[in-house]
Amino acid sequence: MKLIFLGPPGAGKGTLAALVAGLYKIPHISTGEIFRAAIREKTPLGLKVQAIIDAGQLVSDDITIELVRERLAKADAGNGFILDGFPRTIPQAEALATIVAVDAAVNFDIADGDVVSRLSGRRVCKACSQNYHVDYMRPKVDGICDKCGGELFIREDDKIEAITKRLEVYRAQTAPLIDHYRKAGKLVDIDARPASGVVLESFQKVFPVK
Ligand SMILES: [Zn+2]
């Protein structure tokens, strides 16, 4: 099962990828993880990536694609994989098509308004980094961590302006991939609004575990 996961920040894509990877015994491959592994293993590409990041620059498409190619050639990806965070653009999708034919692109569908209320409600403990949510996972005392009594705060990334910015980037850059894979007959829409257990059930209905 060779899959691409698409969806805006806050859609719960990472959580689902971890659940699906465990259940279907295929690796969850995110570009962040590929970069970190290449850097850690000091491969020739890893050294290049390290230099680019140290210089505060963005890793180019060519290098990213080369890293993805190397990662997909590893034995554990032989039975399938979940690509998360790649491709992000149409040129990347076209490059990927020259490496491997994916079975489906799964679109974790959620409206911007739902993303904003989901992410802007997140609170994190300053002391122990425990996560809370003002609607779904309230602490016993407002603003105070249940585990350690630390103060809860809103991460910069979870402030409404930052969320709006990330959604704009996603809609402009990555959302065209939805049409791209729909035209190719490979798009599967999954409603990402419910809790992760329910989203996983919808996923399993489309992709039964063999
Ligand atoms: Zn805490």
Automatic annotation (TrEMBL):
Primary localization: cytoplasm
Residue numbers binding Zn(2+): 125, 128, 145, 148
Gene Ontology MF terms in the entry: AMP kinase activity; ATP binding; zinc ion binding
Alphabetical list of InterPro entries matching this protein: Adenyl_kin_sub, Adenylat/UMP-CMP_kin, Adenylat_kinase_CS, Adenylate_kinase_lid-dom, P-loop_NTPase
Chain's role: Catalyzes the reversible transfer of the terminal phosphate group between ATP and AMP. Plays an important role in cellular energy homeostasis and in adenine nucleotide metabolism.
Family: Belongs to the adenylate kinase family.
Domain comment quoted from the record: Consists of three domains, a large central CORE domain and two small peripheral domains, NMPbind and LID, which undergo movements during catalysis. The LID domain closes over the site of phosphoryl transfer upon ATP binding. Assembling and dissambling the active center during each catalytic cycle provides an effective means to prevent ATP hydrolysis. Some bacteria have evolved a zinc-coordinating structure that stabilizes the LID domain.
Protein name as annotated: Adenylate kinase
Organism: Teretinema zuelzerae
